[in-house]
Amino acid sequence: MTYRCCFPSICLKDGAQDFAERPYLLACYTELRAANYYDGYKATGKRATLGSYTLHEGSAGLPGIINCYIRVYPGDREMPSDNAETRKKYMDLILKDTAKKGYTLIPLEEIPGNDPVLPDIPPMSMLLYPTDYVRAVFHDGD
Questions:
Q1: Domains of the chain: which residue ranges?
Q2: Which of 25, 75, 80, 125 is the most exposed place for a label (fewest CB within 10 A)?
């Protein structure tokens, strides 16, 4: 199974601001509604923990989604709790944990073909720009 990476802003109960800035996030959550972080946060009031992640299986041959919780706020930030360094630190924790579980990070440039949900968004390498618009997929070997 292959997973798209999504990076929701964990302080938002409504994803409108994130969706406006990052349309691929809306496209992913529209395709796999169960992965929508904002719906869950709004319904339960329980905010994700920074440095954690959730996996959501895909269906009908489409990739699943891994929500990586590395950012508190949308956009670029220079706050003590949310900046490029803290986001990279949290992403490193996620990468270490997923590696222990047998997942491999594959930058989208290395995946042949177009993403069926996001064909018009150019691929970007993981962590070249760790604050926003980071797109990659995890693959569990299946």
A1: 2-139
A2: 80
